Amino acid sequence: MTDELSHFNDEQRAHMVDVTKKSETQRRAIAETTLHMEEATLTRIKEGQIDKGDVLAVAQVAGIMATKKTSELIPMCHPIMTTKVNIMFTDDGKDHLTIIAEVVTIGKTGVEMEALTAVSVTALTVYDMCKAIDKKIVIENTHLVEKTGGKSGKFRFDK
């Protein structure tokens, strides 16, 4: 792994990295985040008893939409044509809801930022839909789990 930062030009100012000469390859990234909440909140989410509606369905759509907008939110991100976005939920049956996003593309640059944006906006949407009943929700442990494709190859987050 190199420690060279490629988002700076010769004058040490930010610029978008030139990917013109890179080959198009299949690139895939998986990211996750966890929400810690009151046990009653998670129960109400799972039982569809939140007044604003189906929290997980709305959050899932928000995450997919956010994936498509990543280059508008993160200044040096290239716009990417995603070919797959899948957002999944798991929970511990008590007070933790984990959000996992898988993003795939065929392109010249990776989709790590898209996967991280997906889980972040999905989590924020869960928070927004539940804040009236649980203001102590904590969004934690947001990270890249895995990426494949591109020049740097495979990465796997080892806990």
TrEMBL record:
<feature type="domain" description="Molybdopterin cofactor biosynthesis C (MoaC)">
    <location>
        <begin position="16"/>
        <end position="150"/>
    </location>
</feature>
<dbReference type="InterPro" id="IPR050105">
    <property type="entry name" value="MoCo_biosynth_MoaA/MoaC"/>
</dbReference>
<dbReference type="GO" id="GO:0061799">
    <property type="term" value="F:cyclic pyranopterin monophosphate synthase activity"/>
</dbReference>
<comment type="pathway">
    <text>Cofactor biosynthesis; molybdopterin biosynthesis.</text>
</comment>
<dbReference type="InterPro" id="IPR002820">
    <property type="entry name" value="Mopterin_CF_biosynth-C_dom"/>
</dbReference>
<keyword id="KW-0501">Molybdenum cofactor biosynthesis</keyword>
<feature type="binding site">
    <location>
        <begin position="76"/>
        <end position="78"/>
    </location>
    <ligand>
        <name>substrate</name>
    </ligand>
</feature>
<feature type="active site">
    <location>
        <position position="128"/>
    </location>
</feature>
<dbReference type="InterPro" id="IPR023045">
    <property type="entry name" value="MoaC"/>
</dbReference>
<comment type="function">
    <text>Catalyzes the conversion of (8S)-3',8-cyclo-7,8-dihydroguanosine 5'-triphosphate to cyclic pyranopterin monophosphate (cPMP).</text>
</comment>
<feature type="binding site">
    <location>
        <begin position="113"/>
        <end position="114"/>
    </location>
    <ligand>
        <name>substrate</name>
    </ligand>
</feature>
<comment type="subunit">
    <text>Homohexamer; trimer of dimers.</text>
</comment>
<keyword id="KW-0456">Lyase</keyword>
<dbReference type="InterPro" id="IPR047594">
    <property type="entry name" value="MoaC_bact/euk"/>
</dbReference>
<dbReference type="InterPro" id="IPR036522">
    <property type="entry name" value="MoaC_sf"/>
</dbReference>
<protein>
    <recommendedName>
        <fullName>Cyclic pyranopterin monophosphate synthase</fullName>
        <ecNumber>4.6.1.17</ecNumber>
    </recommendedName>
</protein>
<comment type="similarity">
    <text>Belongs to the MoaC family.</text>
</comment>
<dbReference type="Pfam" id="PF01967">
    <property type="entry name" value="MoaC"/>
</dbReference>
<dbReference type="GO" id="GO:0006777">
    <property type="term" value="P:Mo-molybdopterin cofactor biosynthetic process"/>
</dbReference>
